[in-house]
């Protein structure tokens, strides 16, 4: 039996390329591939995609560390409303946690400042400029050595 994976798929409502550039700088995201609506071998059904979306991203795949995330501009402009979930990053040290947290918070909203908690030596939560919620959560040293 093959190994099953769950990969988040994010829709950025016309701001996907901007989000990719932001995540490249904020969390060292590496883009694996991009397909634009105008490059599709089949045109979408009439009325499903705005006429000015040829240069928008139909599908992209990028990595943050070992994790794969897929994304798109979706089929409409005007932003998105991410709700009911967050992406969690497990940094290797406090300096990396602080750098990523501050970079993701730029233009966003901090919902819990980065600091020590009973479950993590360095934890914080924020909503970035695209409305994506993030948790930065270092593992306690005793858990990190078991991984």
From TrEMBL:
InterPro entries: Glyas_Bleomycin-R_OHBP_Dase, PhnB-like. Transmembrane segments: none annotated. It holds the Pfam family 3-dmu-9_3-mt. GO terms for molecular function: methyltransferase activity. Keywords: Methyltransferase, Transferase, Ubiquinone. Signal peptide: none annotated. CDD domains: PhnB_like. Residues 5-136 form the PhnB-like domain. GO terms for biological process: methylation. The keyword Transferase applies. The keyword Transferase applies. It comes from the Bacteria. This is 3-demethylubiquinone-9 3-methyltransferase.
